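All the exercises in this workshop are built on plain-text protein records. Sequence and backbone structure share a record, each on its own labelled line. The structure tokens are whole numbers drawn from a learned vocabulary of backbone shapes. The record below serves as our worked example for the rest of this section.
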Amino acid sequence: MSVTIKDIAKTAGVSYSTVSKALRDSPLVKKPTKDRIIAVANELGYQPNVAARSLVSKRSFTIGVVWPTIEQTVLSTLITTINKKLEQLSYTTLISINEVESALKIFNRYQVDAILVFDSSQSIDSYTSDVPIVTYGLANKETVYPIIDVNRLKSTYIAVQHLHNIGHRYISYIGEVEKEELQREKVQGFTQAISNLGLPSFPDQIVKVQDFDQYDGYEATKQLLASTKLPTAILTGSHDLARGALQAIYEKKLSIPNDISIISYDNITAIDRFDTPLSTVGVPLDKISDKIIEVLMNVISGKEIETTIFLEPELRITTSCSTPLK
């Protein structure tokens, strides 16, 4: 026999309406009461009746996610964070690895409440959808769908600016990828900072990579460390590239930050146990996930929102950065 809201109310010693509000995370229920009700619901093994709720609300309480083809630690961490927060709002996440057009058709057929498209390099304005769409990607073109973007150019600029302010002059960047528009902004911010701050150019200052995984970061850093002119600081274009860079630096028996300081793009709480906590720059993942969910809930509710939303980066400096040794 399935557990009902009435069973939870009886066990918790509260009214039916209080339980209903608590399970919907209503601000009308005080946190201690809400926590007690949720604990009782979990203890009793309560499962919400999605079908009944959908009939009342005219919603499916599902979000479709069009997943990108690239594999990066930061994106995996971001979607995990989004999924957990959507679960707290009683939403289920459905992920499609199909091509964008095919995924949109599938999610329209399943009648999800909204669709989140990750890093689509192609315009999706030409696709028809009865379901509202939100994109997390590059907001450099007009679009009929809301798009959330982060200021990549400013991220790399302020990272170089910080390194310059603490005395670094020879700064390298690992992460240029040809024909990759999302990455081009990071390189642009780096080169603008080098020029504006009057920092010198030198061989291997910007190292191209084939991909953004740890191996590419490792190989790129080995190339840097074999150069005649060693940088005193390295800025990487992703968290995974930074992992590879650290591996190459440690293999050379160099010290971080005494020999080389390092900052990684992707403001992600380190999930790896680095010997030295990694300095990062970018928009914190919690801020990105909160904004994505906010926009999803607003489009589902039919609220008018900005078409383009920019999020500003933050610089988090740890012991992986210091004044260079003379």
